Amino acid sequence: MKAIETNATARAGKVNWVLFNPKTYATILYLLLSLPLGIIYFTVAITGLALSIGLTPLFIGIPLFFGVAKLLNGIVNFEQNMIRQILGLPTPPVSYTHNQQSEAGQNWLKRMMKGFDGGLFIRNLLLVLLRFVTGIVFFIIMVTVISLGLGLIALPVVHIILMNEMQLDILENSLFSYFHIDWTYNQQYLLYVGVGLVLFWVALRVVNGLMQIQRRIMYVDEPYQQPSESVETLTHATVDPQYYDYQPYSRDDTPNL
Question: pTM value?
Fold first, then answer.
């Protein structure tokens, strides 16, 4: 049953009709912002770690380190939630935890140390560093493929404007003249626009593919694959066990007076 739900969740984030789907253009905006956001995340992570390590002898570096760990976790959660919103994925199930030990008598440092997870910190740090790399690479790929398609689509308009305003013929030494193909400008326009539309459609498919890669890199589907404790289980766990030991008398068990 959980495998079926996981597959349904994975299909929910797929984009089929790329040209008229708002998810595609939301993905383009996300990848455009990925470059500055990746630089900001990388700068904050490296600066925070360097300051926490350098200020450790002054004791202020220890709480700063735990603060950086919390900040990295918040960055990863923010990126995961943003990808879910763009792809239209459902809200992940809430995992309820029942704390058996009271933390009222502990100071703030012990509480921070108790809530620190070394494995989670390393994973979040690596994800932030990887987010910086993918932000640059995905931005370059997206801008290149989209610019190529839009450039061919807009080529006829640019050629007409340059011919009328500056008497500059950018199609004079095109491939058609090189192969001695005597095509009119209108025929060349149709070919360029047709190829540009195909390339633009391919570019949108590439953009959605990059988003699916980013989705897997950031562990967006991880909460859907982990079993979560239901509210009903938590409710039964918190009920006094003596309640289940009490059994009311039935009519047959009533003592004779």
Answer: 0.74
Whether the predicted pLDDT of 122 surpasses 60? yes
3-class secondary structure, 182: coil
CA dihedral sign of residues 43, 45, 47, 48: positive
Residues 6+ apart with CB under 8 A from 172: none
Residue 115 host element (H or E): none
Token pair of 166 as six digits: 């500056």
Inter-axis angle of helices 185-217 and 61-87, to 10 degrees?
A: 130
CA separation (Å) from 39 to 36, 137, 166, 216?
A: 5, 12, 41, 20
Give the burial class of 113: count Cβ atoms within 10 A of its Cβ; 0-12 exposed, 13-18 middle, 19 or more buried.
exposed
**Cα distance between residue 234 and residue 182, in whole Å:** 78
Averaged confidence pLDDT in the chain: 80
Per-residue model confidence (pLDDT) at position 7:
53
Please write the tens of the pLDDT for every residue from 169-195: 888 777 777 777 778 888 889 999 999
Separation between Cα atoms, residue 67 and residue 48, nearest integer Å? 9
| Percentages (nearest 5) of helix, strand, coil residues in the chain | 70, 0, 30
